Amino acid sequence: MTLTVFQSAPLDRPAWIDRCMASVRNWAALQGWSYQFMGDEIFDLVAPDLRAKLRERTPILADLARLELMQQHLNQEGGQALWIDADSLVLNPHWSPALDSPASFGQEFWVQVDPDSSGWRHYRTPHNAFMSFSAGSPILPFLRYTATNLLERVDIDNLAPQFVGPKLLKALHNLCPFTLHEQAGALSPALAIELATEPGAAVEYYRDKGGPALSVVNLCQSLVDDKISHATMSSLVDQPQRLLALIEH
Fold it and tell me: What is the pTM of this model?
């Protein structure tokens, strides 16, 4: 069965994003997969009325557009489609995920300060920075229908950026569990900052709670400038060995 990896990014992206995408292209080539990239034209796949409604909410529009892209590809070409966000870095190019399920998603092990105590807490939740679907999957058309229906009916000005991405996946996963890949995770700002400087309490917590060894990690560009800097992201991409501190004891 053929597998195609999809990515998308705007023209005005930082250099570290290009290096992340290069790691994905190299991984796809090593695994014998096809690779396709799209720029902002990916948004043209969304119906005009909804695209106009979401024009100021690009992260939400992107979450919907990627579903449309993969559905169109699978309808025309069959096989399997794998989406990987452009700000995802491949750490282990020899990792070959089991993609025999009709749908699968990455899983976050998200470490952050616990607001109710002086310590830390973590969440294990699905995310859509890494997701795969096979032709004929019942999950992909259901996600497209659900996301579109919700966005047509709600006031988008008050929505979280993750509304039809991780938040929708989490709600559905609690009812009918998906196949998740813990090796395809996401790096919280607390972990990223320590890994770029000196491992500390957040990294120690990750180890103690059994955080997984990551093969692909989403670096969460949406949090840059708010909770973390481009310099920190660039440092981690240029020195990916720093992420080994997550599992070293």
Answer: 0.95
